[in-house]
C-alpha cells in the first residue's frame, strides 16, 4: 500500500518518522558501539551540512560512494538522501579496522561511474591515491 501512496513514502521519510517518535531507540550495533536514531540523524545532518558547504552538492547531483560497510556508510547515505542527491553505491568490505576487499576496480569502476553519471566520489581514507 505504501508504494502506491502519493506522494510515495521513502526510506528517508520512514527514518525521519522513527527518529522523531523514538530518538533514543537503538538502530544500529557495530562492533562495541550502539547508534540510536538520534545519533544517526545528528551525524547525517552534520554530514549533509559539510557536503553541501564544502562540496557545493545540490539536489539531483549523483555521488559515487566508495566506503566500507560501517556506520559512516549509513549516515552518508542519509545525508545524501536529505540533500536529494542520488547515490551510486560502490561497495568495500572491512575486517577489523582495515580495508580488505573492494568489489569494483579498474574498468568496472570506470563503467559504474559513467553509468551512474556520478560527478563526485566519496571514498574512505584507505582508498586515497589507489
Please specify the SSE layout and strand pairing.
Blueprint: H1 11-21, E1 26-30, E2 33-36, H2 37-55, E3 63-66, H3 71-83, E4 87-89, E5 92-95, E6 98-102, H4 106-116, E7 120-123
Structure description:
This protein has 130 residues and is of the alpha/beta class. The protein has a single domain (11-123), classed as 3-Layer(aba) Sandwich (Rossmann fold). It is built from four helices and seven strands; from the N terminus they run H-E-E-H-E-H-E-E-E-H-E. The strands form three sheets. Strands 4-3-7 form a three-stranded parallel β-sheet, with helices on both faces. Strand 5 and strand 6 (98-102) form a beta hairpin. The radius of gyration is 16 Å and the shape is globular. Residues 94-100 have low confidence and may be disordered. Belongs to the ATP-dependent AMP-binding enzyme family. This is Long-chain-fatty-acid--CoA ligase.
> Number of helical segments?
4
The fraction of residues assigned to DSSP E strands is 15-25%
Mean pLDDT: 83
Helix content estimate: 40-55%
Number of strands: 7
Low-confidence stretches: 94-100
CATH-derived architecture: 3-Layer(aba) Sandwich
Structural class, please? alpha/beta
Strand order of the largest sheet: 4-3-7
Number of domains: 1
Backbone CA Rg: 16 Å
Order of helices and strands: HEEHEHEEEHE
The major sheet is characterized as: 3 strands, parallel
Global outline: globular
Question: What is the CATH class designation?
Answer: Alpha Beta
Distance between the termini: 45 Å
- What is the CATH topology? Rossmann fold
Multimer state:
single chain
InterPro entries: AMP-dep_synth/lig_dom, ANL_N_sf
GO molecular function, one term: long-chain fatty acid transmembrane transporter activity
Family: Belongs to the ATP-dependent AMP-binding enzyme family.
Domain AMP-dependent synthetase/ligase: 16-122
